[in-house]
Amino acid sequence: MPTHTLSNHESFPYDDIPPGDEGVTFAFFNALSGDRGMWLQSVGDRLQAAGHGLLAWNFRGQPETSFTITQTDEETIVSDSLSLIGELQPKRLVYVGLSIGGLYAIRAHLKGGVGAAVGLVLINTLRKSGPRLDWVNHAVVRMAETGGLAMMRDFYAPLLMNQAWQAENRDAFFSTDYAPLPEGDGTLMLLRSGISADWDIPYETISIPTLSITGLQDRVFRDPADVDELSRRIPNLTRVDLPDAGHMVPVEQPAALADALVDFAAGLSKS
């Protein structure tokens, strides 16, 4: 497994699968409590079969990473990501971000220069700062501090996931003792960083074709009015709404997601 080493000798793992001659490289920005394996297990095979490449990595604090930092933020996460992209120089990048990962993808695009992308995909990303989002972000951290990821999943799964997934996976929940994530835990550090995320994005300056994918069963982060408003501010936007998906589209509807990504890539300029 290759790793990318930063200037301070901390490191994180990645997977780099080059595209075919006519393909793009989908570069995946994780959600805070996710990891690169989700993309490889869900949509990876389908995208490769269509001739596309994959670049997936873990943020510092996610599994298999080496880190000594005790706090992080979106600037650090974006900088780490662009460091990897700058080293590998992948072909025809399309940034794909899930949840807050879409915010990092937007920030990476707006930085320009290294890692310039030809397309952008936002999966359940569009949201606005406000009392409700602030409450949710603090509640997620409080649960992690109190009962760990098991408590988070027990409470949030019925609000984040679609009903088909809930029915299939219900028996796997409420079966473990809750235990707080300890200080210094990487996931806890990342979840805390979500509280200070800056969602005041100059959407009008996104200069590349953009695909926004929304799971209509997401009952935590989706506000239909906000999604509509922010969508109108992105100049070259295509929307795909998935009635049978919630927040975790790669897990709930991997085939539909892969089809949307392949269709989006087919419409991009070959330049």
Secondary-structure blueprint:
Elements: E1 3-5, E2 11-17, E3 25-29, H1 37-49, E4 53-57, H2 74-88, E5 93-98, H3 100-111, E6 117-123, H4 131-160, H5 163-169, H6 186-193, E7 210-215, H7 224-233, E8 237-242, H8 249-252, H9 254-266
Helix pairs in contact: 1-9, 2-3
- The residue ranges in which pLDDT falls below 50 over 5 or more consecutive positions are none
Give me the secondary-structure category.
alpha/beta
Order of helices and strands: EEEHEHEHEHHHEHEHH
Major sheet details: 8 strands, mixed
As a percent range, the share of helical residues equals 40-55%
Inertia-based shape: globular
Distance between the termini: 32 Å
Mean pLDDT: 96
Total beta strands: 8
Strand order of the largest sheet: 1-2-4-3-5-6-7-8
> How large is the share of residues in beta strands?
15-25%
Oligomer: single chain
Number of helices: 9
Radius of gyration: 18 Å
What does this structure look like?
The protein has 271 residues and is α/β, with parallel strands linked by helices. 41% of the residues lie in helices and 17% in strands. The chain is built from nine helices and eight strands. It has helices at 37-49, 74-88, 100-111, 131-160, 163-169, 186-193, 224-233, 249-252, 254-266, and strands at 3-5, 11-17, 25-29, 53-57, 93-98, 117-123, 210-215, 237-242. Strands 1-2-4-3-5-6-7-8 form an eight-stranded mixed sheet, sandwiched between helices. Helix 3 links the parallel strand 5 (93-98) and strand 6. Helix 1 (37-49) packs across helix 9 (254-266) and helix 2 packs across helix 3. The longest helix is centred in the middle third of the chain and has 30 residues, at 131-160. It is globular. The mean pLDDT is 96.
